[in-house]
Amino acid sequence: MDDPSTQAFLLACLTAGGGITGYARTGSIPSIAAGVTVGALYGLGGLRQRNRQPYGVELALLASVILAGSSVPRAIKTMKPLPIGLSVVAVFGLYRFGTLWNGRVMA
Fold it and tell me: Which residue from 5, 42, 83, 104 lies 20 to 30 Å from 20 (Cα-Cα)?
């Protein structure tokens, strides 16, 4: 589980699955659009990392920034479990892929 590509794939499944679930429960088009888009970014980042192609870490970091930008303010405002959970996922991604990106830039 220490492999960053596996973590990116896990985050892809969580975010895309969450978007699909949000659509199934409430009929929310923004939920499915955002969830699948962020999930696709995580998935593409994980795929590029696994194949040792450039910009894999950057794509996963971008997905984390987008997710954090939308979920953290909502979590602070509403204090509801779903935005808080999304914020935890986003912060994990920011830490994991930000650390990897920072290590590459500094090296």
Answer: 5
